[in-house]
Design a protein that fits this description.
The protein is α/β, with parallel strands linked by helices. It has a single domain, classed as Spore Coat Polysaccharide Biosynthesis Protein SpsA, Chain A. 30% of the residues lie in helices and 13% in strands. The radius of gyration is 17 Å and the shape is globular.
Length: 231
């Protein structure tokens, strides 16, 4: 069994409520459970984005795969399943190469140059991976180390992957939906365009689209077009 998680803290705006409805539809269509995680299950001291790492907790050990997807993400009626994909998400190549990049600077004490780093908007982990990662969870270290909490989920996951070694020996294509071994965008089999990219880069038949930053204003009109009879 698999589950999709999304997280929100505070009063949900209409765009978030409608995005949630679309993702619930996707979960049902692909045979998965869905849960909206609220507030601060991992502790307010870590800030907003690290709350998404609740996906690592024992609460979800009954699930084989857990996918945490940002709230500003919608599902289209395509409903192609990503559950048979082996990848974790999309590698944040700038952070991997550049210690001065924002995610690396969010917690320099947690950063290792060249080590696996993923964008936090779409992360899928199996049970074995989640259990191995949480062995290295250190609440006190994370709270003390985070200087910029906005990319806190990305830098903490980076640290956990590095400490656990769960991806040691893996090739980029095995874990990333976008990049080749040189960390350049590959020319074919860009699964991110189907499952987690921004509208301007998404495939015409994308099942999931990410409306980050200022793109959120387009969530409601896009959903109205995709679901003319409503959600």
């Amino acid at each position: 069994m698999n589950i999709i998680l999304q997280h929100f803290a505070g009063k949900m705006p209409l765009w978030a409520k409608q995005a949630e409805k679309s993702m619930r539809k996707y979960a049902i269509a692909t045979g998965a459970d869905y849960e909206l995680v609220l507030d601060f299950p991992m502790g307010e001291e870590l800030g907003f984005t690290p709350q998404k790492l609740c996906m690592l907790t024992e609460k979800y050990d009954k699930y084989d795969q857990v996918c945490m997807i940002d709230m500003d993400t919608i599902a289209t009626p395509e409903h192609e399943s990503f559950w048979d994909r082996p990848e974790i998400g999309v590698l944040h190549s700038r952070t991997m190469k550049n210690p001065s990049e924002r995610t690396a600077q969010a917690a320099p004490d947690l950063y290792t140059e060249g080590s696996w780093t993923f964008f936090g908007n779409w992360i899928k982990l199996n049970l074995e991976q989640r259990q191995a990662l949480r062995v290295h969870w250190d609440q006190e270290l994370f709270a003390k180390s985070l200087k910029d909490k906005h990319p806190g989920d990305e830098i903490i996951l980076h640290y956990l992957i590095n400490k656990s070694g769960i991806l040691d020996g893996k090739k980029v294509r095995e874990v990333c939906m976008r990049r080749d071994q040189s960390l350049n965008p590959r020319k074919t089999k860009r699964y991110d365009r189907k499952f987690c990219n921004q509208p301007e880069d998404a495939a015409h038949n994308a099942s999931i689209i990410h409306f980050c930053a200022g793109r959120k204003v387009n969530i409601l009109p896009t959903l109205t077009t995709l679901y003319p009879e409503g959600l």
